[in-house]
Amino acid sequence: MAAKFLYFDPGSDNSLTMPVDRLLSIDQTGNTEILITFEDKDGTAGSRTFATLGVDAGTEKAVMESISNAVAFGKDQFVVIADTTNSNFINSSITGVAINANVVSSTGLMSAGTGADGGDTYKSSVKRVGNIIETTIIFDLDGLASTAADGNIVGEGTSANASIANLTSAINGSVFHLCEVTCVEAIGTGEPDLHLVGGATEADAAGGAVSSGDLLADFDGDITLGAQTRTGLNSAVAPTLAKPFLFLRNGHGTSDAATYTSGKLMIKIIGEV
Prior knowledge:
Elements: E1 5-9, E2 16-19, E3 23-30, E4 33-39, E5 48-55, H1 60-72, E6 78-83, E7 88-89, E8 94-103, E9 122-129, E10 132-140, E11 145-146, E12 165-166, H2 169-172, E13 174-188, E14 194-199, E15 214-218, E16 228-232, E17 245-250, E18 258-259, E19 262-272
Parallel strand pairs: 1-6
Antiparallel strand pairs: 1-2, 3-4, 4-5, 5-8, 6-7, 9-10, 10-19, 11-18, 12-17, 13-16, 13-19, 14-15, 14-17
């Protein structure tokens, strides 16, 4: 039987074709999101290549069925799954696609501490291209809480270990440059003015201060949907990772004591092998 190939094009001259025999799984990873996992496109042991599809709410099963039927029963050897350049999709409910290649892991390597892991969603990837390592974290605020005091850590009540990530040289490389934070879902109810801070102590608790914290990212006010800030990492954090625990804390001015009902932040950090 002739081999089949699946085609993905997110635009920006970054298309990908993967053989079906490297397909590992098709998973719904959230409302309006499907993750397609392949063995790594370059054959790197322990790595994976991911194609993430955006889909209309409630259509995840139908989209997965369309892909499965094309793989199992379709006559075409070249199967277009999502081509945003030409608006060609295997199912009309697909709204977009993103590609992550040479990824060490989509989940598991990065995680929030026990004092900040109550959000609905936590996703991470660690991508290596040559000697550059890009870490991406999508962190969900829904279910966590802010307090009334400026500078206090966002998390679950007063629970300890309220970091949202722990950077290590083994996974994230020697962090040297960029910290980019983007609001990908509007923040509801809780304090919208937040800072990303690097701290030295894993045990720092929600509702308290970050021990010897270094400011990494500041939106200079309330964070709104689509807002983005990009900051060179503080020299105390990079490249020695002396303060590798990432925390979200209340920003400037009067802070709101409330539980978040929505809000997602995407954090990107760059390191080198």
